[in-house]
Design brief:
Layout (H helix, E strand, L loop, with lengths): L1 H26 L6 H25 L12
Length: 70
């Protein structure tokens, strides 16, 4: 349950950084460059992907079975 909550928090952080970059996209000028927010989103995505891979390899989460296996 803890790992799922961590995934949700990281996804919410990605969305928050997306909306924080929105004024930079619309106005074209802000105190921080657009790459700052997008870089943070990329870092969070890499961390999230790494956590998913680690959780799959350790058996913490189980992938859905293929619908084609009998």
């Amino acid at each position: 349950m803890l790992i799922k909550m961590l995934f949700i928090v990281l996804l919410l952080l990605m969305v928050i950084h997306l909306f924080r970059a929105l004024p930079s996209i619309i106005k074209g000028q802000s105190s921080r460059p657009l790459s700052h927010y997008l870089g943070h989103r990329l870092l969070i995505a890499v961390i999230l992907f790494g956590l998913v891979v680690i959780a799959l390899l350790t058996g913490i989460i189980q992938p859905n079975p293929s619908p084609y296996t009998l």
